[in-house]
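Task card 7
Instruction: Convert sequence to structure tokens.
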Amino acid sequence: MKEKITDEQARYMVDILKKKSELIKNFYYKIDKYRISGDRETYRKTFKELLEKEEIKVYGKKIE
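Output:
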């Protein structure tokens, strides 16, 4: 069963997505080679590591 979310929760999720999208723009070129080659495992691992490092660099902490 699907849960209904409030407008406030929806705005929060959109805000988080916007912030993460901006962060990804800073490092996408570093993982593009894995995406093109189809190496999903390395892509996912590297993506998570780079996203966490970028969040800490920009915001001083991990976004959740």
